[in-house]
Specification:
Blueprint: H1 2-26, E1 31-32, E2 35-40, E3 49-56, E4 59-66, E5 76-77, E6 82-83, E7 86-87, E8 90-95, E9 98-99, H2 104-108, E10 124-126, E11 130-131, E12 138-143, E13 153-162, E14 165-172, E15 175-182, E16 188-196, E17 200-211, E18 234-239, E19 245-248, E20 257-258, E21 262-268, E22 274-281, E23 289-297, E24 307-311, E25 314-326
Antiparallel strand pairs: 1-3, 2-16, 3-4, 4-12, 5-6, 7-11, 7-14, 8-9, 8-10, 8-13, 13-16, 14-15, 17-20, 17-21, 17-25, 18-19, 18-22, 22-23, 24-25
Length: 328
């Protein structure tokens, strides 16, 4: 009996480690993307900056490692005698010598923000302001669907990295003074190949939603402020993949229903993909409150002219998906 029990335990342990080993083997490993430098400014070199590109799971990762500048001609403001070491970088993507057109940037833009750099039709990434003397790396990632206008297969892409302004903030009397000097010292242009996957396009139509109002939940009293009624400011978001922000709507103020009609282009990788839909209450002074989250296959939302779903504190949400197939 003991021998049988021991054999069973050993068999279980072997199976467990076998499953873990199989899972580990199938875990995708980032693959480096090699690139060729077309041109660069004198200070954009391996002693000061190192760019790396990696690709995994339909994502392309870009890292600009800043090594710390010691002998560098930072501009000096003549009035305040202040050395300006803060700057930011712009990453512009090109294909066949022209800006790479995409829907990605407008989709990522917050619907109620007014950052003009986000309202563009080409692939361009703006970094946050960074201190070149003490900052860490600049990181960003781009999903492969952002290249939906490129044909599937190997494509050669150019990336222009530019910087042209240095800034700093100093105390000037009773207030802070923002200093700015135009000086372009760190610029480079590279080219690299990417294997673009097939990209599917579906159109998501939102026809409005209404919140529950019953013994378990009431929208009244959610926002108690001096300038609003007590009802929430409602907006909804799409997640693709289902755990990753894709885009969101504007918000409607002080209401228990969202009545606007919205249309979004959804780019994805598989015909049987799933998306997530989240409904939120926008708050000015704290994090937004979640009102419900739904996830399901696109096919579930393409069956009828209008598909009514309910989830969380959402009484109903009317939505339709129109599948367009592969677009590249």
């Amino acid at each position: 009996m003991k021998t049988t029990a021991l054999a069973f335990i050993l068999l279980f342990i072997c199976c467990l480690f076998s499953c873990l080993n199989v899972h580990y083997k199938h875990k995708p490993i980032p693959q480096p993307v090699t690139y060729t430098t077309i041109n660069h400014s004198a200070f954009f070199n391996d002693k000061n900056i190192l760019l790396t590109i990696d690709s995994v799971d339909h994502l392309v990762y870009f890292t600009l490692n800043i090594k710390g500048f010691k002998k560098f001609p930072f501009p000096i403001n003549p009035q305040y005698k202040d050395t300006l070491t803060n700057t930011s970088f712009i990453f512009d993507f090109y294909y066949q010598g022209k800006p790479l057109l995409t829907d990605y940037i407008p989709l990522q833009n917050s619907a109620w923000e007014t950052d003009s750099s986000r309202n563009i039709d080409h692939l361009s990434i703006y970094s946050d302001t960074t201190d070149l003397k003490s900052s860490g790396p600049i990181n960003f990632q781009i999903p492969m669907y952002a290249f939906h206008n490129l044909k599937k297969g190997k494509q050669n892409i150019e990336l222009n990295i530019s910087q042209n302004v240095f800034t700093d903030d100093v105390e000037g009397g009773n207030e802070s003074v923002h200093l700015r000097e135009n000086k372009a010292l760190l610029n480079a242009r590279i080219k690299f190949d990417l294997n673009i996957p097939p990209v599917y396009k579906s159109i998501v139509y939102g026809y409005g939603l209404e919140l529950r109002n019953d013994s378990a939940f009431s929208p009244a009293g959610m926002d108690n402020t001096l300038w609003n009624s007590s009802y929430p400011d409602i907006y909804w978001m799409i997640y693709y993949p289902t755990d990753t922000y894709y885009t969101k709507t504007v918000y409607e103020k002080s209401t228990d229903r969202y009545t606007a009609h919205d249309t979004f282009n959804l780019y994805h990788y598989y015909v049987n993909d799933s998306i997530g839909i989240g409904v939120y209450d926008h708050d000015y002074l704290s994090s937004d409150d979640g009102l419900g989250y739904w996830t399901g296959p696109l096919s579930r939302l393409s069956r009828h002219a209008v598909n009514r779903i309910k989830f969380g504190d959402v009484k109903f949400f009317d939505v339709k998906v129109q599948e367009k197939g592969v677009v590249n």
